[in-house]
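Supplementary material to the annual report.
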Amino acid sequence: MSIRPDLAVIAGHVSPGSRVLDIGCGDGALMMALREKDCDVRGVEIDGDCVERCVSQGLSVVQGDADRDLADYPDKGFDYAVLSQTLQTAARPDRMLDELLRVGTRAFVSFPNFAHWRTRAALMFGGRMPVTRAIPVSWYATQNIHHVTVKDFRELAKEKGARIEREWFFAGERQLGRAGANGRAEFAVFELSR
Amino acid sequence: MSTTSQTLRLPSPLPLDGGGELSRVEVAYETYGALNEDRSNAILLCHALTGDQYVASPHPITGKPGWWERMVGPGKPIDTDRFHVICPNVIGSCMGSTGPASEASDGQPYAMRFPVITIRDMVRSAIGLLDALGIETLHAVVGGSMGGMQALSLAANWPERADRVLVIASTSRHSAQNIGFHELGRQAVMADPRWNQGDYYGGEAPDSGLAVARMAAHITYLSEEALTEKFGRNLQDREAKTFGFDADFQVESYLRYQGSGFTQRFDANSYLYITRAMDYFDLAEEHGGKLVNAFAGTQARFCLVSFDSDWLYPTAESRHVVHALNAAGAAVSFVELSAPHGHDSFLLDVPALDRVIGGFLG
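Predicted assembly:
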């Protein structure tokens, strides 16, 4: 099974046998990949159908709202906390980042980069909220309530005293270098620690 | 399906939470599917308030199919081709395990001399059964409603005995509303003159009181949507209201039928004792007031399932348990399933539940 490039990066960089919390785990694709690496992996997902699919596959997933329910998890209960394509849907991404680094020794965060040139062009020349490959849903229906750019995220991490351990950038399936990532990357993956 | 009906006399008296002990305890149980050589494929199935051990075999009194026949059997989500399913009748009940209708040492029925028991006492008797059967570790303990309370109690008090804990439409404590409805039922039984302070064995049983108790309880097992869908304001076998107190409405007729049918198979005193055990259930209270303590250090995997139309043990109760399990660092799954039937959804046709159970049991 091929998985999304950001998930493949995360799956590839989690050490085997780690304890992982996947926040917004969706249909469990990353969890399945991590299970192959003998990780003890738990998920949180708001969508009941997704949760049902995960549990039917024997994954440990709790139906819940990450904005509210992360508070129950003990400090540093996990080696990694993963937030893939979910940060921009959080009520308060800044607090979510704090929670990630509280429950996990390290955190992986991936998100669509709003400063990608296509998004900029859509807004600049079209004068409309962008609907692109990376941001496919119209402004009125999208769950992305806090659009973020690579620059913004680096700034937030700095403010929060989080150290960026590694970072990866993608346009579609293609991995990009670090240069000009804020304009060239459709989405980004960061590994953080504190 | 094929089953083995057996009754085990526990080798030693059963210590009770209320103090003292119960001697000569018998536990009636059914088993389905074969126990494997290393005794690792056993599933303890815990029944609900008015359930019994006849999970997947016909009820000996009513002749009706087992109460979870859709879930338990060869190739079903709880697959008896792979698992050895053990379902004991809870103590306090009336289907073969020791209860108020059983003979005390003086040869007379206990009646109200039967001690008030708890959910943990029920589980303690089930543990006694597992010990006698030589089953050290369960593949899973499974239960809905009061069965879920037993599963949680087993996980909290005998954490090494089950690898998986599946709790459906249940709670870690009885709410004021839950207790209120049970008290209504008990008062209905005790207001029946035939109840006679519990001494009715050999004479006429307080069937009217028990039927009213069942009618009230039955409403709590359904949802308004389900009742409206099933009956609406439809009249029962008549064209117009009679301006009397017959069962004009279908819903009245249905509840009367459920009430009187129940008295054929259930003992009124058992109803008092088992509802009391449920009311006393508060897993946090047993563990210093903090639910997280109940699960400290647990190695078991948990799965909790609630139904969106269940107002008896609503989703918030399952979440409360899930939060404690998360805080304890336990491996837990939780899903709220959508089903229209209210609390009884766990017994009815909800395909998503089948998938979740099958997936969780592995």
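Chain A touches chain B at residues 40, 42, 48, 51-52, 54-64, 69, 72-74, 77 (CB under 8 Å).
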